[in-house]
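DM between two lab members

TW: hey, do you still have the Carboxymuconolactone decarboxylase family protein entry open?
JB: yeah, one sec
JB: this one, 161 aa:
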Amino acid sequence: MEARFDLMANPLGAKIAKRIYNVALAIVQSPLSETIQNLVMLRASQINGCGFCVDYHTKDATAVGETAVRLNLVAAWRESTVFTEAERAALALTEEGTRIADAHPGVSDETWARVREHYDDDQIAALVSLIAMINANNRLNVIVRNPGGSYEPGRFAELAG
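TW: and the structure you got?
JB:
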């Protein structure tokens, strides 16, 4: 499988990608834990069928010590015992925030209440922004058909700044 279009080879595409990456840096530097960030990005990417992003976020999570068992169970988190209540709340918010176009009623009051139990306002700002941004990234990569499999952790560090 080959990508339809290389956004990074196009000057405008590269300019946009750099700005998206800088938004991602603000989220990375937030008080939202790296573990939650990795789980959220992986789950949204699975739902959206983005092979590139599933590859990317699985490898980045592994590079910082996430276990294969937990990564393998993200898609079935409701039927798994390896996630904390805070992680479950974030994964529920991710699914409800991602599936809006699937005639989902949006984020339920129950899910929002669980998120409020586990996260402060800064963490929620980061979490909501992360869900929006990973969905945007998934769509960019699915539209141009970027294939998964060749990502190396740290590949996009040059975009910072």
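TW: got it. The longest helix spans residues 121-143. The mean pLDDT is 94.
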